[in-house]
Amino acid sequence: MPATIVVPLDMSETSETALPVAKAFAADSGASVLLVSVVDVSTEFAAWMRDSTDTEDFEKEQARTQEYLDGLASQFDGANVQTLVRTGRPEVEILSVLDETPDPLVVMSSHGRSGFNRLLVGSVAGRVVGGAPCPVVVVRASDSGEPMPETRSIEKVLVPLDGSGFAEQALEAALTSLESKKLQFHLVRIPETVTWQTTPYAGGMANYQMVETYMDASRTDATAYLTEVAERLEGRGHSVTWEVRSGVIADEIVTAAGEQNVDLVVIATHGRTGFRRLVMGSVAERILRDVSAPLMMVRPEDED
Q: What is the pTM of this model?
């Protein structure tokens, strides 16, 4: 179970979309909350302000940031909330805070003041996900100006599994993060699709039959695997549904999340072929762009 929910904020309304989710995790897990804001010195003006012999403007910015965090902290009813203002490059300072914090869980918005041109690749959120020593929950901020559905409690969780130990670490991270709750899990497995081509030459139909046989065996294996995982979860007191789907991985995860109306999607950043480099590629971008639920990304311990 996480000891501290770390919430990076940059004084923008979009970054604050992470707050309801952080409150939900804090309420469900009993963890304390650490609100973090970094006075960004990576811009030319900010660096000049930092290095200027007249430090008054820089000190005012730090004080303004502290006042901002104090105001947000007052909104957490019943939670142990602390605030921290750091100076430097946002992703570097956030990762440093995580290294200094025992058993953290990050909850952050997909966007901040930098706008909506980037979701993960090249963004602060993406760099935090890639370097964090803990799970990172990314909350998609609306790019239309409309408010996103507010997460008040985590009850139903979607976990795509590919049969690897990597993916099961994501499942275990969800269990650990919400250890005190009995959850509703919806497990999904999407076997790798094998393509075939029939030709006018001998063997075309045989190739088709081999592919069909392979896909049938894959679906049978997936069914047996999900049944076994479901039994394990039910033995721990959770309720479980599961399904085997066919198609493009990202599309199927998005569709399943919508159909099941889940509160959280949990994925590993690494797994079998098809899930490899999941977090830094188009699959995670697609999921985050089209799923309204928060996305927990878990980097397996032996990924490196």
A: 0.84
